[in-house]
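Notes from the 1:1 (GR / supervisor)

We went over the backlog. Supervisor wanted to see one worked example end to end before approving the batch request, so GR pasted a single chain during the call. The sequence is below; no edits were made to it. Supervisor asked that the structure be written out right there so they could see what the output format looks like.
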Amino acid sequence: MSTKSAGAGSDEIGRRRLLVGGGLGAFAAPLLADPPQAQAANGDPVVLGRTNTAISVTTVRNVRGGGTALRVTARGESSVAVQAESPNIAVWGESERGEGVRGVSTFGEALFGQSLFGYGVRAVSGNGVGVDGESRDGVGVSGVSHFGIGIEGGNIATDQPAIRGSAGNGSTGVQGFSIPEDGGVIPPTSPNTGVHGRCDQPTGTGVLAESTAGAALRVEGAAVFSRSGVLTIPAGERSATQTDVPLTAASLVLAVLRRHQQFRHVEAAVTHPASSSFTVHLNLPASPGCQVAWFVVN
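Structure output shown during the call:
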């Protein structure tokens, strides 16, 4: 009896071990294949590789002078070091004396912001730079918006510009151009130019200056116009034609004699838009050395 009992007990123990082992294996397989997410609550440590949920702010503070509070590194060509999502503000940068947000890049955009309806990039600083973008070969700061303003600058200062562009190597300080809907070629930068505005559309405007009370355009210094020059009228002739001047039906040619010629004056300057030319007519045959200064408007 004792032997039979011992055998039966051994068989029962083996059977229970088999059932228990099989049950654990059945549950262990899915756990190893797809482990559940660890939810860290308030007061719990942050769990790497898992979703951490809290209902209050998580603060990381480094009290060492010149230290870094948080450093995140991601490897790979398409990797993202930090991703922030929010229905309101995804990333908030604030500084009292330094930069609110700084972006540094070697070949790409140092700081890139994109928005469908709001601001592409918004940074606030008390006394320093709101946004500082620096790049060796790419774009320092890029702002793109589908329906709003890509980059906007404003201030209330009386002696500082809202937007400043400077080129320290003899290039263009600020360049603005308008491209038609079907595409176009971006013009190259002009050397030694403060502001460059261009529009190649037939009814477009490269630079528009408007004022309802003051001066729409003020020029201090020499002004150079490509559609101006001097036309020589041969002695004995009463007219001469200037060619290679782009004209429209609204173009006006202003023409005057460069020096006094007794009893002679300009009667008319007739435009020929189809041939990109105009003809200057005198009231009498020209004397030797007769020159007419001309200027085209519109």
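Supervisor's comment: The longest strand covers residues 290-297.
Batch request approved.
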